[in-house]
Structure formats: structure tokens, C-alpha cells
UniProtKB/TrEMBL annotation:
Protein name (database record): C2H2-type domain-containing protein
Protein family according to the UniProt entry: Belongs to the krueppel C2H2-type zinc-finger protein family.
GO CC terms: chromosome; nucleus
Keywords annotated in UniProt: DNA-binding, Metal-binding, Nucleus, Repeat, Transcription, Transcription regulation, Zinc, Zinc-finger
Matching PROSITE patterns: ZINC_FINGER_C2H2_1, ZINC_FINGER_C2H2_2
Length: 398
């Protein structure tokens, strides 16, 4: 009697190989095809000895020659190969865009038809893709599963983490074709391109003012509706968002775990330390998309953007005057209080800004650190230098 050894694979525990839906290419990285489960575990094999029967044909596997991922489904293997080749067989009938997978095309078509089948049970917001709904739900749950291994910051979406990592690597792959300026993410590039076109598509429904970016409009609207529901119980300062209050409370706790390796100054938050490092390196990576001016800190940029929005959110406690920059408000209030004025040690004159006092002291010392690059003439203040430069360029005088 002949005995034939047959290995029967228990496929019930083997997760079905599938391709994860890809988000729109503008917003997300290409999601890798999910690997099949580990090679069939030898302990899952059941060995039977069957008399006089032929063995079942072995399960065929397809291995990618570039990344060595394995598939039992030929169609999914073919789909995967297109990730490497860049081949896009599925074209949109509404626009010129094409995709590597039919499922991705179906998701994209919803952006034309307006269909949003994936709805959030908590707030009712709907989405064209299941992945977008999954990301949105994390806003409600506060789940941030994607963590930066370098600084510990966490993100709702994997794509956001990937963009954030470029802060550490310095990579700026998105380049403006008109001026050559580069950016860490495509959204910033698109906002920058509007500087060249002068396009301002975001309009305030309250006052009609227009903005080049949605973030600028959102900030502008806060000052129309002005409610600050989150209040600090220690100093009564109020905030628009709970996250702002949470950050503020650490100031009262006086915890400063982040220390500068150059000057030993310490900070409550890592991003404050990162901003501080730029005072040593001279780096300015916060760029205004309205005018292109760059700043070393995000809050400097935010206050600068008030010059574009026309908003003066910093109101004096003693009079009706308001200011676009918090530092200007502090200096102004010293006029009312007389506190913290800066005194010239030579003549006793007082100033509301330390910078103004330093400019004044050069009257006594004769120091002129601001040099004209064209003729070499020196000036005590940068404003005097700017006035002088106009003499070299008559067009600026008119």
C-alpha cells in the first residue's frame, strides 16, 4: 500500500492580502500594500497520510523582485508592481488624473460627484474616503498614533508625521517653478504660488476681506466672533482653544525641562527651545505667504500676519488703542503705568522699548553700526539707513 504525504495549509487564519485605499496624492503618501501574514507557520500545517490519493496542488505565491513582498493573489501582485513602475492604468473621465488602482480612482471620482458616503457619527461630517473618516475620528478621540522618534511629537495622520520629519532632516522637496523656493509640504507650496498670481480665494463672510490662505481667514474670523471660552484659573487669561490653555498652564507650573546646549537657557516646551536655537544659527523658516518675509518663530509670523489681515487684537487696558503686535501693546501700556521704563544712564531720558534706548545711547557713544552697502556711510539706527538708501534709488522717493 502506497502512502502519499500531503500538506494541507490552514488558510483560515491567514489574513486576506489587500491593498489599502490610497488617499489623494496631494494630501498623503502612497500607502504600502499590506503584507501578507508571516510565511505559513510550520506548526499550522496539518499532515495527513491518505491512502491511494494524489496530493493537492501547492499554493502558488508571487514575490515582488524589488521589495520581496509575497502574494497569493496574482491580481493583487500585479496591482502592487505598479507601485514600483509608476504605471497608472485607471484614468478619471472628469479630469486628466490617473491612478495605479481602480479603488483609488473610485475614491477620486467622488471629489467630482460630491458623493460622501463615509459619515462621522459624532459630528455628522462626511468624507469621500474611509481613510479620511478614520483620520477625522481621531480628532474626537484625541488619538495620535504616529509619533516622531526624534522629538516625541505625535500626529493624527501618518502623512503629517512624514511632513514633520522634514523639519529634522531639512528636506524641502516641493519647489516653486517660478522662483525656485522650496517647501517641506505641498500645502505650503500651493499657498506660496498664490503670491505670484495674487490670487485670494478665501473671503470673509462678515466683512468681505479676502485672503490667500484658509488659515489666515480662519484666524481673521476668530476676531469677528471673538469668544474666548477657555480661562486660566490662576491669572484669568482667556484663550480661543483648550490646547492654548493647556500650553499656558505649563508656564505657571514653571517646569523647564528643555535646556539650550549653547547658553544653558531652559524652556517649558521643546518647540520654544527649537525656536531659541535659531537665535544662535540665524535660521528663519516661518515664511509669510502674503509677502514672503521670514521669521525665526511661529508667533512672530502670526503677529506679522496681522499686518495683512488688518486686525489689531492687542487692546490697551487703559485706553481704546489697539495693536497688531503684543510687544507694541506692552510698550504702550508702560506710558500709562510708568513701569519698566528704560532709562539712559548718560542723560536720564526714558523709553518704552529697550531697543529705542539702545538706539538713543549711540547718540552719546557715536557708534554707527548700520552701514550702507553702496557707499559705506554709517548710521546709528536701521531706520536712518533705510531713509539713506532711498537716495541711491530715486524711484523709492516717490
Amino acid at each position: 500500500m502506497e502512502f502519499i504525504k500531503v500538506e494541507i495549509v490552514d488558510m483560515s487564519d491567514l489574513e486576506q492580502c489587500r491593498v489599502k485605499d490610497e488617499d489623494t496624492e496631494e494630501q498623503r503618501e502612497l500607502v504600502e500594500v499590506k503584507e501578507e501574514s508571516q510565511e505559513l507557520n510550520e506548526h499550522q500545517h496539518q499532515v495527513h497520510f491518505i491512502s491511494g490519493e494524489k496530493s493537492s496542488p501547492p499554493t502558488q505565491t508571487f514575490t515582488c523582485p524589488q521589495c520581496e513582498k509575497c502574494f497569493t493573489c496574482k491580481e493583487l501582485f500585479s496591482d502592487h508592481i505598479r507601485i514600483h513602475t509608476g504605471e497608472k492604468l485607471f484614468s478619471c473621465r472628469y479630469c486628466d488624473k490617473s491612478f495605479t488602482h481602480n479603488g483609488h480612482l473610485k475614491d477620486h471620482i467622488r471629489s467630482h460627484t460630491g458623493e460622501r458616503p463615509y459619515r462621522c457619527d459624532q459630528c455628522g461630517k462626511s468624507f469621500t474616503q474611509r481613510g479620511h473618516l478614520t483620520d477625522h475620528i481621531r480628532i474626537h478621540t484625541a488619538e495620535k498614533p504616529f509619533k516622531c522618534q526624534q522629538c516625541g511629537k505625535s500626529f493624527i495622520q501618518k502623512g503629517h508625521l512624514k511632513s514633520h520629519m522634514r523639519v529634522h532632516t531639512g528636506e524641502k522637496p516641493f519647489i516653486c517653478q517660478q522662483c525656485g523656493k522650496s517647501f517641506t509640504n505641498q500645502g505650503n507650496l500651493m499657498s506660496h504660488i498664490k503670491l505670484h498670481s495674487g490670487e485670494k480665494l478665501h473671503h470673509c463672510s462678515q466683512c468681505g476681506k479676502s485672503f490667500s490662505g484658509a488659515s489666515l481667514l480662519k484666524k481673521h474670523l476668530l476676531y469677528h466672533f471673538g469668544e474666548r471660552p477657555f480661562s486660566c484659573d490662576q491669572c484669568s487669561q482667556t484663550f480661543f482653544f483648550a490646547s492654548q490653555l493647556k500650553r499656558h498652564l505649563k508656564v505657571h507650573a514653571n517646569e523647564r525641562p528643555y535646556t539650550c546646549s549653547f547658553c544653558d537657557k531652559s524652556f517649558v516646551w521643546f518647540h520654544n527651545l527649537k525656536d531659541h536655537y535659531k537665535t544662535h544659527t540665524g535660521m528663519k523658516d516661518h515664511v509669510c505667504f502674503e509677502c514672503g518675509k521670514a521669521f525665526s518663530r511661529a508667533n512672530y509670523l502670526e503677529q506679522h500676519q496681522n499686518t495683512h489681515t488688518g486686525i489689531s487684537p492687542y487692546k490697551c487696558s487703559y485706553c481704546d488703542k489697539s495693536f497688531k503686535v503684543s510687544g507694541s501693546l506692552k510698550a504702550h501700556e508702560r506710558i500709562h503705568t510708568g513701569e519698566n521704563l528704560f532709562h539712559c544712564l548718560t542723560c536720564g531720558k526714558t523709553f518704552t522699548h529697550s531697543g529705542h534706548m539702545k538706539d538713543h545711547e549711540r547718540v552719546h557713544t557715536g557708534e554707527k553700526p548700520y552701514k550702507c552697502p553702496q557707499c559705506g556711510k554709517g548710521f546709528a539706527t536701521s531706520s536712518n539707513l533705510q531713509i539713506h538708501k532711498k537716495q541711491h534709488c530715486p524711484k523709492l522717493l516717490h
